[in-house]
Every structure is written in C-alpha cells, then in structure tokens.
Amino acid sequence: MARVRFSGVTKRYEGRTVVHPFDLEVDDGEFIVFLGPSRSGKSTILRMVAGLEPLDGGRIEFDGKDMSLVEPRHRDVGMFFQNYALYPNKTGRQNIAASLMRRGADSSAVRARVDEVADLLGVSHLLDRHPKTYSGGEQQRVAIGRVIARRASVFAFDEPLSNLDALVRLRLRTEFKRISRELGITTLYVTPDQVEALALADRVVVLDEGRIVQVGTPQELYERPANAFVASFVGATPMNTLTGTLKGDHLLTEDGATIAVYGVTAMMSADAQGMAMVGIRPESVSLEEGGPNKVHLVESLGRQTLVHLKVGEKDFRVLAPATTSVREGDNVALRCDAKALHHFSYDGSQRVN
Ligand SMILES: Nc1ncnc2c1ncn2[C@@H]1O[C@H](COP(=O)(O)OP(=O)(O)OP(=O)(O)O)[C@@H](O)[C@H]1O
User: Fold this and answer.
1) How far is the CA of 29 from the centre of ligand 1 (A)?
2) Are residues 226 and 137 both part of a single domain?
3) Which of 86, 177, 240, 284 could make an SS bond with 340 (beta carbons 3.0 to 4.6 A apart)?
4) Whole-number Å distance between alpha carbons of 327 and 337
5) What is the 212 CA–ligand 1 centroid distance (Å)?
6) Last residue of a domain, one of 233, 256, 287
7) Do 217 and 253 lie in a common domain?
8) Ligand 1: distance of its center to the CA of 54 in Å?
9) Any domain includes 353
10) Which residues have C-beta within 8 Å of that of residue 70, sequence separation ≥ 6?
11) Sign of CA dihedral 67, 69, 72, 74
C-alpha cells in the first residue's frame, strides 16, 4: 500500500506531448479512475507508474520515494494490461500462482493465497482447468486473480472489464469494488466508460487530449462539471449544451429558440450576460404540451422515457417519467429550474457559476 504523488509528470512521443504536465496526490488505499476518450493518455500514465515508460518531465513518488530510478520489477506495482492473456498451458491455479512463485513464496503459502483469491473472485471451480475451457468472463476473472494474488503497493488496471458482455461486466464491476474495499490497496484504474468510472471511483481524473480537465468525486463531477467536455461526457444520458443568453425568465438560444426558466435570480442573469454556453441535464427539464419544439423520437428506458427533440437547430434530450403522454410528432415547450442550469464560457472551456 502506498501514497502516490505525481508532480509535473509529462510524456512526449516523437516531439508530440501526449501527457501534459500534471500534479496529483493519491491517498493510501484510494481507488482512482482515469477516465477519458481514446488516446487521451490514460494508458501512458499507468505505464509510467509501472516504470514501463520513462517520464519526460516531473516525478512519481510512492510514499515520498522517487521512483525515477527504480526498475519496474522493484516498484511493486501489480499491473493488468488491456487484453491480458493467461498462460494457455498452465491451469488456473498455476496462472494465479505465477506472480507469487516468481517471488519465491513457499508452496503452502502460495496454495493458501491462490485459494483465497479464487474464493474472492468466485473462480475456485476453475483452478484445475486450463484457460481454453473458460468463458470470456472467466478468463478475465482468473487474469484479475493473477494480478491481485500478490499484495502489491499499487494496483494498475488498464480497462480490465473491456471485451466482456454487458451482464458479466456489470457483475465483475460490483465485485471489483468489493475486492478493492477488502484489500484496501491503492488502485489506479483506466476506463473510457463513464458509468464504470462513476460506479467504482473514490475520485475520477478526467482526461482530454493529454490534459487533466477535472479531478473529483463522482458526485462532484456530476454536480459541478468543470467544463462542457466533462458535462457532456459524464452522466448516464449526456448533458445538453446550448449557446444563448438569459433574458428575463427565458433562455434565448443563439438560433432563436427559447426555454422557459423559472426561479431566475438577478445573480444568475448577471453571470450569464451576453452569449454563453449553458448546460442542461436531460433529467432537469419538464415538457409541456403545445410549444415550438418538435419531438422526433421517444425511447422507453424502462423506468423513464428519453424524449429526443430539437431546440432551434440543436438536438436536445429530455428524460421524462415513464408515464409521459408525449409522442413522436408532438409539439412541446420546455421548462427548467434556473438552479439546474450549468453556466460555461462561450467556448465551453470553463465553468462560470
Ligand atoms: N509507444 C508509442 N509511440 C508513439 N506514440 C504513442 C505510443 N504510445 C502511445 N502513443 C500515443 O500517445 C497518445 C496517448 O495514448 P494512450 O494509449 O495513453 O491513450 P489512452 O487514453 O489509453 O487510449 P485508449 O483508450 O485508446 O487505450 C496517443 O495519441 C497514442 O497514439
């Protein structure tokens, strides 16, 4: 277990900066998720932690000790790579035991530890079988077992739940959270999936093109996204963003559409003077029959209904109750509480409220 500190950590490939200098302190036992779209630099950060890539600037410390000159195998990082493969000719037991054997633990201790890990992951019945007889989800579990068998100082997981079907993914995600709580080991976890990130993380680090755009608890990210990128990336149904201005009790968009806003305060109007970007979550809007907005698609999500419509030229989504009477082709008006509006600069790069 270790505290991990990143100071000014930078990475360049072929003259191009892929991780811009950043600082981050990870507490002992904390579960940190690096979240970002493809090529945002997530894997590169993990690889630097594990010592598989040198830094081009800054330093990484474990419990105050600079790791720059420490060989990967002495860093004590248990790392799970994307598409991590098992040894095909070894049994489940031999696979999970591999990292322990390499470190010369005695055989009864290894046996006990493998049994414990297998029990934790629900793979005890797979220990005597070979990987080719496993399903995708079973392979992934045993592979995770191979990483967590050794109580490393830091776990680094690169998309461990990718390539699994939705149900297995959901079940393993829940188990991941439980296991990480039980082991209490500092975990750095990479995913492009915001639902997974919010479900697992103590804190999420959001990356965009090699820059950290926000660090916060799942709730902080949801309630106060730092810019329009985070706003539209985080949340089960992404936030709507519009450019416009608040005029009296209406939000008037750039292309002339309006949304009724109630509870507008003087302060909020002043904040949003001139054109700015406004974010509105689909769950913060109510629909009223008769109005300028045409509904073009209605999707049932079970507990709720997702209504797709146009506000001016822009696509806009509203989460309505399952009982809504709104149908495709209806014309509706939108209403929203001023307190639910997120205000950003015109280009969306900064939050202003
Ligand atoms: N060995 C390398 N040589 C040159 N460029 C690289 C190398 N490894 C990564 N890159 C580049 O660095 C950038 C960040 O890559 P990285 O794999 O860290 O992104 P990522 O966020 O993990 O993406 P993904 O989710 O697709 O794995 C990308 O533009 C990638 O092309």
Assistant:
1) 27
2) yes
3) 284
4) 24
5) 15
6) 233
7) no
8) 14
9) no
10) 51
11) negative
What's the predicted TM-score (pTM) here? Answer: 0.89
Ligand 1 atom nearest residue 210's Cα: 14
* Domain-located, residue 267: yes
Among protein residues, the one with the nearest Cα to ligand 1's atom 8 is 44
Picking from 40, 14, 31, the residue whose alpha carbon sits closest to that of residue 157 is 31
- What Cα–Cα distance (Å) separates residue 333 from each residue in 182, 294, 295, 309, 317? 50, 9, 10, 10, 13
Host domain of residue 294: 240-344
Question: Could you give the number of structural domains in the chain?
Answer: 2
Q: What pLDDT digit, counting tens, does each position of 200-247 carry?
A: 999 999 999 999 999 999 999 999 999 999 998 888 788 999 999 888
Contacting residues for 112 by C-beta, under 8 A, at least 6 apart: none
Global ipTM: 0.96
**Nearest-10 crossing angle of helices 136-148, 166-183:** 20
Residues in the ligand 1 pocket, defined by CB under 6 Å: 13-14, 18, 36, 38-44, 192
> Phi first, then psi: what are they for 60, rounded to 5°?
-120, 130
Cβ burial 272-303 (10 Å sphere, 16+ → b, else e): beeebbbbbbbbbbbbeeebbbebeebeeeee
Q: How far is the CA of 24 from the centre of ligand 1 (A)?
A: 20
